[in-house]
Amino acid sequence: MEITKVNRSKTPYAFLALGVLLLAIGSYYGLYVAPAEQYMGNVQRIMYVHVPTAWNWMLAVLFAFGCATVYLFKGDLKWDARMEGGLEVGTLLAFLLCCQGSIWAKPTWGVWWDWDPRLTTTAVLLFAFLGILALRKFVEDPVKRAIWSAVATVVASIDLPIVYMSVKWWNSLHQQQSTPQTVASAFHLPLRVNAFGILFVMIGFIMLRTRLAALRLNQELAVPPVPSAEEAGELA
Amino acid sequence: MLVAALRKELLLQWRTRGQLMAVFVFGAASLLLFSFAIGPNAVALRTFSAGFLWLGLLLSSTLTLTESFHAEMENRALEGLLLLPSNPRALYYGKAIANWLQLTILGVALVPVMVVLYDAGTTSLLKLLSIIILGTAGLSAPGTLYAAMTAQLKAKQTLLPLLLFPLIVPALLASVKATSLVILGDPMAQSGSWIGLLCAFDLIYWSLCGLLYGRVIED
Fold first, then answer.
1. What gap in Å lies between CA B170 and CA B174, rounded to an integer?
2. A167 shares contact with chain B (CB less than 8 Å)
3. CB within 8 Å: B204 and A170
4. Residue in B130, B109, B145 with CA at minimum distance from that of residue B182
5. In terms of CB atoms within 10 Å, which of A73, A75, A118, A198 comes out highest?
């Protein structure tokens, strides 16, 4: 029985394959073709995954926030399934960002962790999303779970710019944000190819995760089968 | 409506005032324990005193916030409240204001403990009081919203801090910075911008959480 519509197309696999292919091409260019950066040398090459991850992470957070808002207005559980996909992929990307940031920070600044606004904001959001995912595990009623996690997602997403601002005032030592305008043209190609690679992988994962969430929702909401006459007789 | 809800909360708190005392002892004990993390270094203790005060207050707040929904969860009293011709927004603001008041009392009570333990005295008491009022407002607005969710669950003592701590990072940061500037002196007159940040945080969350509360407790 389908209460939440489940999309069973093969599209997510196509996205995943395309994303992996683009990532392979972008990383090959980034590692072997693009010149080493003048001051940071080969360490800088982590930028080709770090910066695209950061862009896509923001997209994932926006997606989860959007789904939560739409759910709160419409109350259609398919938005809850989508939000779950966005939340989990956003958590994963936030974790990756923190790891990549640490790997970058050690040779560049000499420390693993630095209280830079972007790194700290990512870590704060990582914990906020982990909290929401934990909350989802403890609520059994699907509708309550959807409402509560949507509320928590909205509240946590609105917090992000405030966290960023406050940490920025508190302490800052990150280099200026990298965008194609601030980076020499030789670095553009791998950066852009990888950005689309991660984007497609992310879309594929979100779609698959949404499908899984919808299947689970259907299972939870399914009406138990009516007992047959014999079983009813045994019960009586 | 709001007055009735607030009156109910304050009456409840007054009748369980022993609990606030216990939470105060918990907060004071954590202030004592923080000093062991630094060691008997008077200068360092004084430098970090504001951070310890707010961490102590934050840890205590998870106890009072969870406890504030205790009465509603017994005998499905929350459902009874919702059946009344009342507005969930009034219920929220009643509880949030009561929690705010309780946390402010707690914060004010913890200040002498901080002064004695860390030698962190100050003469601008009015400023310190206003920072405590603004900071605890930042804790209680989202805290009350999240406590309404987690109080209905089994793992409430774990989930509330898990949800609340990342969220109140800006309020905590601003409160610690502003308090620290009050205690250690503020030659650059920076505390104004931190207080401004606190006000903005309070304004956003007092309005947003009031809007969302109705969805959280509806059945």
1. 6
2. yes
3. no
4. B130
5. A198
How many Å apart are CA B71 and CA B5, to the nearest integer?
Answer: 14
Interchain proximity A163–B169, CB inside 8 Å:
yes
Contact A202, A60 (CB under 8 A): yes
Helix axes B156-167, A117-138, angle to 10 degrees: 150
Report CB contact under 8 Å: B209, A155: yes
Closest CA to A157 of A100, A78, A72: A72
Instruction: Give the mutation candidate from A141, A158, A162 for the B interface (greatest B CB count, under 10 A).
Output: A162
pLDDT under 50: residue ranges of chain B: none
> ipTM of the assembly?
0.86
pLDDT tens-digit map of B177-196: 899 888 888 777 778 888 99
> b/e per residue, B200-218, with b = 16+ CB within 10 A?
bbbebbbebbbebbeebbe
CA-based torsion, B84, B64, B219, B205: positive or negative: positive
Residue B146, chain A, CB below 8 Å: the answer is: yes
Considering the entire predicted model, what is its pTM? 0.85
* A5-22 as b/e: b if 16+ CB within 10 A: ebeeeeebeebbebbeeb
Of A138, A159, A165, the CB nearest to B167: A159
Of B167, B194, B218, Cβ closest to residue A156? B167
